[in-house]
Amino acid sequence: MSKLVAGNWKMFGNKDMIYDIKKIDRHCNDTKCEVAICPPFQLISAANEQTKNIKIGAQNCHINTNGAHTGEVSAEMLTEVGAELIIVGHSERRQDNSETNDIVKLKTEAVHRAGATAIVCIGETLEERTAEQTLSVLQEQMLKSLPKKVTPVNTVVAYEPVWAIGTGLVPAADQIRAAHSFIRGFLASTYGAEAHDVKILYGGSVKDTNAKEIFSISNVNGALVGGASLKSTDFIEIIKAASNSM
Ligand code: PGA
Questions:
Q1: Which residue lies with its CA nearest to atom 6 of ligand 1?
Q2: Which residues of 215-244 are buried (b: 16+ CB within 10 A; e: fewer)?
Q3: Is 175 exposed, middle or buried (0-12, 13-18, 19+ CB in 10 A)?
């Protein structure tokens, strides 16, 4: 299956950075992988208008379509301005905004209802890894935060060990392989044969220097990239690594 390289800009980015998005889009004229950038909300519309080769996404949405929820944005509002993917359940939101698995599931359903692809993030903390609870944590997160209907079109799963996000620490290849193989097995046993084509991204300190090795690991179908997606030259190197790995 084709790999997906998705950039998560978090709360970074101003109008000037549309230039970087256009540069990345030009590079993706003939890449063999899929590429997406999830900028902050205020850039989605302009980014969508200025690109033709890459997809534009968002980093969060509300569970409802409309309502008296001051300061919130619905999945439908995001798709209307061009978001084709929406990240849900990122560990920063689970921690900073107390998002539980139940809320992540409702948000995933909201993304599906709006016709977009949900990038559902899961991953263990360092304490959980040290206590050898990684696989049980991943299982619990998938059981509770994925809805009944999951297809390769409506869902991407992102394995992001919390301790690897923004730290420069990356799990050993064997640890990534074990987690991705476990996620693949869970998806296959829960959703059947179709789940073989659900993409599983790795996220957490992916850089131009380690992307090649990460993309060579079985069941790694792409990457969710934070810090390195903010520098277009670094992000383009990661895109090249994904293209060359296929
Ligand atoms: P990072 O972030 O690449 O900066 O570690 C990844 C993420 O949070 O999705």
A1: 226
A2: bebebbbbbbbbbbbbebebbbbbbbbbbe
A3: middle
26: containing domain: 4-244
Q: Which residue matches tokens 């297809």?
A: 151
Q: Are 220 and 214 in contact (CB under 8 A)?
A: yes
Q: Give dist(CA 36, CA 186) in Å, integer.
A: 26
Report whether pLDDT(154) > 90.
yes
Write down the pLDDT at residue 27: 97
Give the binding-site residues of ligand 1, using a 6 Å CB cut-off.
8, 160, 165-166, 203-206, 224-228
CATH number where 212 lies: 3.20.20.70
Which pTM value belongs to this model? 0.98
Catalytic residue numbers read: 90, 160
Ligand 1: nearest atom to the Cα of 206: 3
**pLDDT, mean over the chain:** 97
Q: Give the gyration radius of the chain's Cα atoms.
A: 17
Number of structural domains the chain divides into: 1
Summarize the chain as % helix, strand, coil (round to 5): 45, 15, 35
pLDDT in tens, 169-183: 999 999 999 999 999
Nearest CA to ligand 1 atom 2: 226
